[in-house]
């Protein structure tokens, strides 16, 4: 009996083992026979994610394609005369080393970027890119190079206009489309295009971090766009474009402790650049209004001293003799509140408002003199060149 039960148990164990093996093979190779969906493979997972996953991030290829042909590289050079070493004045040393009375000359090179703003060959860039250049060469998007001449520059806004010969085929150069500052808001996507470190044309992306940045000590007239799009040495004079590829600014400066981008870059708004560019193309220079005063900011301490409710306005610290301000009766100690009906927030706003007036025009001013409001009318003068601390 025990032998019979042992055989029966062996038959049962073998049957169960074979059944489990068959079940495993069927569930692996033919799961549909058991009414199950097949386990997804790595390949099927990848296909499903590609087909049904989240869409790819927005691309700005069209904006870049639209703007890139209009951005150029600018190469400058100038002669530098090395002074004679003072030891060479010694007659004994001259006897051994010979006469080297003439200082040697070397050439220094610089680079930057620019933007073609007219098919006739006008290029907008930074003044500091071409300020001391004796020779200027421009490399176009197609790789060709041309000599360029300086049409004019404005150191107070750090803008300059160059010109190269237009396309000989008659098609004209690829000019960029100028954008509108009214449409630009904080948070908008922008692209910075230029030639950083001379590596070649490069596009970086960021957003508009702030508008109307001033009091930075970079230029006399400041109203910068701040962006976190990477701007590095060599980007100066390049294009800041919106998500459609329209020019909204000229890349000018960065805040950096290392010389590289830290995500704080500044660009001159196209509204300012257009005005400067048009004046330079038309007359070769930029004309601004001037009244001949020195102003300082009203601090909370000064506001308390003068009995003011707030710090709005500009304190007149000095008046140039014979200037429009002097002739119009403005005195040191006056507080300038408005120019031509527009309120003055601080000395920088005062500078911008006065500079925006046309020389020769008669403009009303609003002043606080002690406890009285005075409203003289001044004939605007022409801002001297080069200007200094006065406005």
3D architecture notes:
This protein has 391 residues and is of the alpha+beta class. The protein has 3 domains: 63-163, Trypsin-like serine proteases (Thrombin, subunit H, Beta Barrel); 181-283, Trypsin-like serine proteases (Thrombin, subunit H), CATH 2.40.10; 289-382, Roll (Pdz3 Domain), CATH 2.30.42.10. The protein is 23% helix and 31% strand. It contains 9 helices and 22 strands. The strands form 4 sheets. The chain has a 7-stranded antiparallel β-sheet with strand order 5-4-1-2-3-7-6.
Structure summary:
The protein has nine helices and 22 strands.
Search tags:
single chain, 391 residues, alpha+beta, Thrombin, subunit H, Pdz3 Domain, 7-stranded antiparallel sheet, 9 helices, 23% helix, elongated, protease, PDZ_6, PDZ
What topology does this entry show?
Elements: H1 2-29, H2 42-52, H3 61-67, E1 71-81, H4 91-97, E2 105-116, E3 122-125, H5 127-130, E4 135-139, E5 145-147, E6 149-154, E7 159-163, E8 189-194, E9 202-213, E10 224-227, E11 239-242, E12 247-254, E13 265-269, H6 270-283, E14 289-290, E15 293-297, H7 300-306, E16 314-319, H8 324-327, E17 335-339, E18 342-343, H9 347-355, E19 362-369, E20 372-374, E21 377-379, E22 381-382
Antiparallel strand pairs: 1-2, 1-4, 2-3, 3-7, 4-5, 6-7, 8-9, 8-11, 9-10, 10-13, 11-12, 12-13, 14-22, 15-16, 16-17, 17-18, 17-19, 19-20, 19-21
GO molecular function, one term: serine-type endopeptidase activity
Protein name: Serine protease DegQ
Domain PDZ: 292-346
């Amino acid at each position: 009996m025990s032998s019979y039960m042992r055989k029966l148990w062996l038959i049962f164990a073998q049957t169960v083992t074979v059944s489990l093996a068959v079940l495993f093979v069927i569930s692996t190779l033919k799961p549909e026979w058991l009414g199950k969906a097949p386990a997804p493979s790595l390949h099927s997972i990848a296909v499903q994610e590609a087909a049904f996953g989240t869409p790819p991030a927005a691309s700005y290829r069209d904006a870049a394609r639209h703007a890139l042909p209009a951005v150029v590289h600018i190469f400058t050079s100038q002669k530098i005369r090395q002074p004679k070493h003072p030891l060479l004045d010694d007659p004994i040393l001259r006897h051994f080393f010979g006469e080297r009375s003439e200082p040697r000359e070397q050439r220094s090179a610089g680079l930057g970027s620019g933007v073609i703003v007219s098919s006739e060959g006008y290029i907008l860039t930074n003044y500091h890119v071409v300020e001391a250049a004796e020779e200027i060469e421009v490399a176009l998007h197609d790789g060709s190079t041309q000599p360029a001449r300086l049409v004019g520059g404005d150191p107070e806004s750090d803008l300059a206009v160059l010109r190269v010969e237009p396309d000989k085929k008659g098609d004209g150069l690829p000019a960029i489309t100028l954008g509108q500052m009214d449409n630009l808001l904080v948070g908008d996507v922008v692209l910075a295009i230029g030639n950083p470190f001379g590596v070649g044309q490069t596009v970086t992306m960021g957003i508009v971090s702030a508008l109307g940045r001033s009091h930075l000590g970079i230029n006399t007239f400041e109203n910068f766009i701040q962006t976190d799009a990477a701007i590095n040495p060599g980007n100066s004079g390049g294009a800041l474009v919106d998500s459609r590829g329209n020019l909204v600014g000229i890349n000018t400066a960065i805040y950096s402790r290392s010389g590289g981008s830290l995500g704080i870059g500044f660009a001159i708004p196209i509204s300012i650049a257009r005005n400067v560019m048009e004046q330079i193309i038309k007359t070769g220079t930029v004309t601004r209004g001037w009244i001949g005063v020195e102003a300082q900011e009203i601090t909370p301490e000064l506001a308390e001293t003068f009995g003011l409710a707030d710090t709005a306005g500009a304190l007149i610290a000095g008046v140039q003799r014979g200037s429009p301000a002097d002739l119009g009766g403005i005195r040191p100690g006056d507080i300038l509140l408005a120019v031509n009906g527009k309120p003055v927030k601080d000395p920088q706003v005062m500078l911008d408002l006065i500079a925006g007036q046309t020389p020769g025009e008669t403009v009303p001013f609003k002043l606080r003199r002690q406890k009285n409001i005075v409203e003289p009318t001044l004939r605007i003068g022409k801002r001297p060149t080069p200007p200094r601390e006065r406005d």
